[in-house]
Design goal:
mainly alpha, 3 helices, elongated
Amino acid sequence: MNTEIQTALRRLGRTVASFARDWHRAQRLLLEWQLAPERFVFRPSGVPDTYADFLFLTAGPRPREPSARARAQLASRSR
């Protein structure tokens, strides 16, 4: 078999997989931000009026930045 074609197909497969992985991560973060309780509060930059309001605002998971180890793994995969 032709190794140049195999190399090109592997590279294409990695590129498509990387794109799909990034797209999935972006869609997940967008959904988290769209469903965040802060979007449904009239004064999102203000202080909550009651303790119940505070608990409502802090109830959901927060979008987190990946750790340094995870970022290094992602960077090594994309090369």
